[in-house]
Structures are given as structure tokens and as C-alpha cells.
């Protein structure tokens, strides 16, 4: 399969390597400046140089895999235009639920398959990527005409030995992950804390919990069946994480990068308002994060 990846950071590097190990034809689509920069400074992954191929444009690919942060999505869409055609399947590894919607608007002839990547410990900073745990990829159809594309992805991920699950209800799974991100990412970011700070009983854990429950209420009002057991599950998943670890949004704040707030409270609060649901905790977290960003 010919695969183009846009976004050579923690996630793009990890999946680029897995696709290449699975003998796929992988190219990273980049603008001219990045091409120059990437070719001059080899990427180091887990201590070894990685020789990816970088192009500004290529013949239409079978799969377009987008792994920029949300702030890079508009330029990734522009970048992709000349390297896809109607047969190209599009996958977005971005957190949240809106990147697929934006990609469907930009590329109405293509199958954009809802996807979640999770559980990896990949980090990327200054041309260095490290990971030990590859995590897993969840995907699924939210419309009937996506079955053929899902079958194609199932074969690809299996042949590349990429841990994956083709799930029945991908919309529910995406809201479930969104609930975690709205809670843990935003609380750690707004209150300058790590996983350790929200694992102990106290006001921060309360905020984390209340933010998740607000997302659950918004999901349930749209008949998306998130349960209390799903909320509890995230508490159990987060428990063994190291106290010093921190979610991506807190890392963005430390690095003075624009956060992905638009994917979290920025997505849920407007939906809640339309449904007449109160979301005071999500709104307060958003205010705090905007204030931190404004002071960069
Ligand atoms: N990291 C993780 O463990 C997880 C991440 N996610 C989600 O996955 C997404 C990607 O995250 P992550 O990999 O951590 O992000 P990174 O910041 O590590 O990587 C994003 C990369 O995208 C590149 N980029 C931005 N715009 C363009 C463009 N127009 N053309 C080409 N490249 C571009 C940047 O390149 P440059 O460096 O040259 O500016 C950057 O290296 C996010 O939505 C994140 O929330 C989800 C689950 C886990
Ligand atoms: C699951 C979690 C919280 C892992 O840190 C994540 O998705 C993120 O950091 O963005």
C-alpha cells in the first residue's frame, strides 16, 4: 500500500516505523521548509537514525494518515490536496471528534474513517522520538458505506502487526476518550500538575471527575451510551501511570505551544449549550487554559 503521513512527531514517527516494518511504501508529506530541515537533521528514534522519505507532493496514495496537532490540521489539509484522489482512505490520529468532520468537509469524495490512538508512551522533542509502548489503534465505521475501507484498514494493520481493534461503535469510543481528555488533560494543564496531582483524593481529583461527568451528560443527551463504568474505567487506567507523567496538553503548556483546547472543552461546551446542558467545570477549565496561553 502507498501511505502518506502528515505530521512527523510522536505519533507519526511511531506509525511511520510500524508501516515501514510491515513493508508498506511510506512517504511523509511536508512543505519545502520542513523537507529541507528534516533532510538536514536526521530524525533519531529510540537512539537510532531513521531514514524516512520526505516529499512535498506524490502520486495519489492509498492511505493518508494525519498526525499533526490540531493547530496543524488546516495546513495538513492544504498539503494533502495534490497527493490524494477519490480512492484514498483518510485516517486522523488527532485526539477529539472534530478532525474527521473537518476532513470530511475538505474531502467529500473520500472515506474518512474515525480513529483513536491510545496507550502509547511516545514523545517527540527536537528531532528525537522515543517510545517503548506502541499502544493501540481503534477504528470503525459510523456510516454503512465505510465497510470496504474498514476491511482494507483491518488487513493493513494486521499485516503490519499494529495492535488495533475494529470497534462496533466508534462514535461512543471517541466520546469516551474525549471524556478522559477533557478531564485529565485539561485539569493537569489548568492547574500545572502531573498525573500524581490528580490521583490523590482532593480538589483536583474532584475537578477531573466533574469535568468527565459533564462530558458524559452531553454524550448521553445525544444517545451516546457512556456509562459510570466507563468513568471508573479511566480512573483504573490512570492509576498505574507514573506520578511524574503528564498528558500532552500539559506538555504543550510547558513548551509554550498552542494547546488542543478546541478539541476538548472547545468542542463539548458549544454542543452542551445547544442541548441546554450546564458545563461550569469545562468552561472554567477552558478560561484558565486560555489565560495561560495568553501569557506565553
Ligand atoms: N503523543 C501521544 O501519545 C498521543 C497523541 N495523540 C494525538 O495525536 C495528535 C498528534 O500528536 P503528537 O504526535 O504527539 O504531536 P507532535 O507535536 O509530536 O507532532 C506533530 C507534528 O506535526 C508536524 N506538522 C504540523 N503541521 C504540519 C504540516 N502542515 N505538514 C507536515 N507536518 C506538520 C509538526 O512538525 P514540526 O515538528 O516540523 O513542526 C510536528 O512534529 C494530536 O492530536 C494528539 O493529541 C493522541 C493520543 C496519544
Ligand atoms: C490518554 C492521554 C491522557 C495520555 O496521556 C492522552 O490522550 C494525552 O495525553 O493526550
Automatic annotation (TrEMBL):
Tell me the leader sequence span: none
Q: Under which EC number(s) is this enzyme classified?
A: 1.1.1.169
Q: Which of UniProt's keywords are assigned here?
A: NADP, Oxidoreductase, Pantothenate biosynthesis
Q: Where is the Ketopantoate reductase C-terminal domain?
A: 169-293
One GO term in the molecular function aspect is: 2-dehydropantoate 2-reductase activity
UniProt GO BP:
pantothenate biosynthetic process
Pathway(s) it belongs to: Cofactor biosynthesis; (R)-pantothenate biosynthesis; (R)-pantoate from 3-methyl-2-oxobutanoate: step 2/2
Cellular component terms per the entry's GO annotation: cytoplasm
The record ties this protein, via Gene3D superfamilies, to: N-(1-d-carboxylethyl)-l-norvaline Dehydrogenase, domain 2 (1.10.1040.10), NAD(P)-binding Rossmann-like Domain (3.40.50.720)
Concerning InterPro entries, the annotation shows: 6-PGluconate_DH-like_C_sf (IPR008927), 6PGD_dom2 (IPR013328), ApbA (IPR003710), KPA_reductase (IPR013752), KPR-Related (IPR051402), KPR_N (IPR013332), NAD(P)-bd_dom_sf (IPR036291)
Q: Give the reaction(s) catalysed.
A: (R)-pantoate + NADP(+) = 2-dehydropantoate + NADPH + H(+)
Location of the Ketopantoate reductase N-terminal domain: 3-117
Family the UniProt entry places it in: Belongs to the ketopantoate reductase family.
Q: What does this protein do?
A: Catalyzes the NADPH-dependent reduction of ketopantoate into pantoic acid.
Protein name per UniProt: 2-dehydropantoate 2-reductase
Organism of origin: Absicoccus porci
Q: What phylogenetic lineage does the species belong to?
A: Bacteria, Bacillati, Bacillota, Erysipelotrichia, Erysipelotrichales
